[in-house]
Amino acid sequence: MVITMRFMLLFSRQGKLRLQKWYTATAERDKKKMVRELMQVVLARKPKMCSFLEWRDLKIVYKRYASLYFCCAVEEQDNELITLEVIHRFVELLDKYFGSVCELDIIFNFEKAYFILDEFLMGGEIQDTSKKSVLKAIEQADLLQEEDESPRSVLEEMGLA
Amino acid sequence: MTSWSAVVGSQCLSLHQGHLPTCLCVFQRMPAPIRLRELIRTIRTARTQAEEREMIQKECAAIRSSFREEDNTYRCRNVAKLLYMHMLGYPAHFGQLECLKLIASQKFTDKRIGYLGAMLLLDERQDVHLLMTNCIKNDLNHSTQYVQGLALCTLGCMGSSEMCRDLAGEVEKLLKTSNSYLRKKAALCAVHVIRKVPELMEMFLPATKNLLSEKNHGVLHTSVVLLTEMCERSPDMLSHFRKLVPQLVRILKNLIMSGYSPEHDVSGISDPFLQVRILRLLRILGRSDDDSSEAMNDILAQVATNTETSKNVGNAILYETVLTIMDIKSESGLRVLAINILGRFLLNNDKNIRYVALTSLLKTVQTDHNAVQRHRSTIVDCLKDLDVSIKRRAMELSFALVNGNNIRGMMKELLYFLDSCDPEFKADCASGVFLAAEKYAPSKRWHIDTIMRVLTTAGSYVRDDSVPNLIQLITNSVEMHAYTVQRLYKALLDDISQQPLVQVSSWCIGEYGDLLVSGQCEEEEPIQVTEDEVLDVLEGLLLSNLSTPVTRGYSLTAIMKLSTRFSSVNRIKKVVSVYGSSIDVELQQRAVEYNALFKKYDHMRPALLERMPIMEKTASNGPTEIVQTNGETEPSVPDTKHPPLVTQPANQANDLLDLLGGNDVVPVIQTTLPTKPASAGGELLDLLGDLSLSGGPAPAPVPSVPVSQPPFLLDGLSSQPLFTDIAAVIPPMTAYNKNGLKIEFTFERANPNPNIAVITIHATNTTEADMTEFVFQAAVPKTFQLQLLSPSSNIVPALNQGSITQIIRVLNPQKQQLRMRVKLTYTHKGLPVQDLAEVNNFPPQSWQ
After folding, report:
1. Is A84:A65 a contact under the CB 8 Å cutoff?
2. Which residues form the AP complex mu/sigma subunit domain (chain A) (predicted)?
């Protein structure tokens, strides 16, 4: 009776995986198989069809944003409509962070996309419903990262200072 | 976002494409590994899979040597690249330990990538992951909240049971912190811990005390999730947290009534995510509790009526509200409100919303049937939707809504749907149509027509068990025989590719071919057809390579049966003898035995091939009451309680009546349903010729002709699991015990029809002489129907050396007290013995 998001996938129309977040322990081999299968199923859907489909024992909620498919697998009893909102919120966060996000941003900065996702969701549940709050946390963490890598003098590098 | 890395080595400039101004070739070290973005760019230039693989392998080799050198500076970069290549599908396991080293590093960047790597490359199946535990523990107590956050996140996403056990205490501590950033994460981490190690739930209880008093929406949201998790897992927690209902109601009310809050606003609605979670928690709390349900009535009504429905987000909240209303003990007005919301959803342009409405209506159609009926026409319209999922739900819901009043209209729509739907639906739809027709058919003619329609339009998709079911239905619709065979014959002329249709048609033509050629049809214009034309069609089936072996069997038998109905016996004889050398073993055997019927046993042929009597519906077919007629005028329908036994000679019935006396008994159908040719010839002769109630002796060698009838006849009798699981053990009883003859009854319930009691009689003999020519007969009151199957033998051996067993099936739809009159006849020590007895001591469980 656990209402949970099992995993989230992002992939392109060409079937290239751009992000995968699994919230249940799954063997690597199984993950690959499921991803392959699911991509096939979703990519075969026509535009007029609804955003929900049954696959194995799960409900798949998916939405296409430009060239990327955002795909969540939820348990049967979940509220599919709110899952669509969760997906949308994630896209908004990416959009705010990257400034008019496009697929290339996610390709070249995949680790950042993960950081944002992990600040937004944990175990498949929303951590914070405030966009501002999530973005602020990411911003602060990025600053920390920059402090880490602050330029050192050449002498410091050589260990002479 | 510029990050500067120190660079050493003489190759550096070329590798890093001039990012960095200076470089001193002081140390001769390996060139710095290329940066992540460079690698991504390079890999994307690959034109083939092979090229990509080559690049990846090269880079992996470089990364491997870098790892071997224990290079702290570039470990982060290398792991990041490895993660990218992993996402492309390449193996990255050699980076697992490196992730752990990164996590242990002091640099935030390292930790960030390290934890990410751990979440992507490790899971609880590898023992390696346990090495993280200590690091996570330290990081949970780090001075920087973002490091603590990383640790909580990792634990909350992938922590194994062991890790959770070790670290639960830390999580609990953080759940009590005043730092809302950490508190919200700790709550979700606790959810994960509880999922992994449910016994630890108790320890988080104290920390939940004032979670709902938080102002911070993040904490509120995750707290509600935590409370939900606890309530779902433990009835004790559920009772404990019921007292929170008023507080939850207040929070929800504030969200709705409060003005615009930019931070949490989504399309004019304030924090819809929190609203939905609260509604879900309320659902769980109100579920089986009247008081809680009452306390939330008002707020639910308020949300239901005030939520803006122009965007998906508003509908998401409405949907959750509907789910809650339907699940708790809400008052009827609220339930009607909920169903009306679903009804409105059905009219929404957004297909997602229609989908969701159909799913919910399907769940509520049993409990709120009338309310859902009001939306029937909208639901039926959804059958024409383009989306597969919507169509499926609309179909299921439509079947659930069919009743005696709307059957004609609904069936029209459903048959139209059957015509045009995707193959994946056809089997289910056909089954649904048959079931609905069986339950609610307004007339026999309509029923037959509906079946014909399904067979002709979706004939290849009907389930295998439809064939015997339909044959049974057709047999029992006596007055429609001529009409049915005519329609089926015409269908065959059009198309012989759909096997179920062909099988049913063959069977009917075999049975009622005489009606066909004599043009007796009343329902429609009788067709003119000759015996030869009919035989042409049946022979055509035998020859066609569209016919399956089973179908061929049906056709051959049909042809054989016509030998007693048609005059062109010679032609039939010829066909049968030809197939005596058929390659198909089944066909060959039938043909050989039919041949034997023509030659050696021609005197038995008419009897064996006679018309089938009415069959009792087998338990698996659902209601055993034959069709409710719904007030439509019918051609004279024979009283279904007294199935006219076409083959039962009238005088035998009368004998029994006389014998057993009184008007309250029904002539018993004391036979197995004659299988023709029967598997044991004995009982067939009993039925037909031998009126002496001492029961015929086992006749002279009867050819053991295999049963050529559709399998279901036997299915209904012996191969049907008569001895399936006994739901309640019914004690056996002694029905008769006199003169050394003892008859015991043992009981089973026929599964799945509980109205049928299956009684096995066991007859034993304590005297020193055998009781031979033993015949058991039984009669039951009018409200029952009884069926006696063939006995195991007709000798009860002396001195309990053996027994005769025989099965009786009693249908008792009105659940009246079971009574039976039995008549026993046998020969003992050369003298005929006859006895009558009443059996009244049936245990209550056998008829209740």
Report:
1. no
2. 4-144
Number of Cβ within a 10 Å radius of residue A105: 17
**Residues 6+ away with beta carbon under 8 Å from B49:** none
Kindly provide the b/e burial profile for residues A81-104, where b requires at least 16 CB atoms within 10 angstroms of the residue's own CB: bbbbbbbbbbbebbebbbeebebe
CA B686 to chain centre: 44
Q: Which helix H or strand E contains B165, and what residues bound it? A: helix B161-175
Model pLDDT for residues B612-640, shown as the tens digit of each residue: 887 776 544 444 333 333 333 333 333 33
Q: Let me know how many helices (H) and strands (E) chain B has, helices first.
A: 35, 10
User: What is the pLDDT at residue B732?
Assistant: 85
Looking at CA atoms only, how far is residue B225 from chain A in angstroms? 8
Are the CB atoms for B111 and B79 separated by under 8 Å?
no
Using alpha carbons only, give the angle B759, B762, B768 rounded to the nearest 5 degrees: 165
User: A63: phi > 0 → left, psi -120 to 50 → alpha, else beta; which?
Assistant: beta
Residue B304 structure tokens:
């239901």
CA-nearest residue of chain A to B26? Answer: A158
Could you write out the three-class secondary structure of B551-616? HHHHHHHHHHHHHHCCCCHHHHHHHHHHHCCCCCHHHHHHHHHHHHHHHCCCCCHHHHCCCCCCCC
For residue B189, list chain A residues with Cβ-Cβ distance below 8 A: 122-123
User: Of B9, B4, B48, nearest to B25 (Cα)?
Assistant: B9
For tokens 């590093």, what's the residue? B105
Q: Which of B93, B70, B74 is nearest to B83 (CA)?
A: B93
* pLDDT tens string B710-736: 333 333 333 333 333 344 567 888 889
Given CA atoms A121, A122, A125, A127 in this order, what sign does their dihedral have? negative
**Token code pair at residue A79:** 């509220």
d(CA A140, CA A146): 10
Q: Give the least confident one: B152-161, B268-277, B305-314, B636-645.
A: B636-645
Length of chain B: 848
* Nearest CA among B515, B491, B496, B484 for reference residue B555: B496
Q: Is the pLDDT of residue B94 over 50?
A: yes
Report the residue from B192, B264, B312 with minimal CB separation from A130: B264
Amino acid making up residue B63: I
Phi first, then psi, for residue B319 (nearest 5°) are -60, -45
Q: Which of B88, B95, B83 is nearest to B53 (CA)?
A: B88
Grouping H, G, I as helix, E, B as strand and the rest as coil, residue B822 is strand
Cα–Cα distance between B305 and B607 in angstroms, integer?
74
B498-538 pLDDT, tens digit each? 888 999 999 999 999 888 888 877 778 888 888 889 999 99
Å from B652 to nearest chain A CA? Answer: 60
> Chain A window 90-129: which residues touch B at a Cβ cutoff of 8 Å?
107-108, 110-111, 114-115, 118-119, 122-123, 125-129
Does residue A14 belong to the interface with chain B, where contact is any CB pair within 8 Å?
no
**Is B785:B619 a contact under the CB 8 Å cutoff?**
no
pTM to 2 decimals? 0.68
Angle, CA B541 vertex, CA B540 and CA B545 arms, to 5°: 100
- Provide the number of CB pairs (under 8 Å) joining chain A to chain B: 181
Question: Which B residues in the span 416-475 are in contact with A, Cβ-Cβ below 8 Å?
Answer: none
> Among candidates B496, B513, B414, which has minimal Cα distance to B459?
B496
CA pair distance B771, B794, nearest whole angstrom: 8
B186 within 8 A of B175, measured Cβ to Cβ: yes
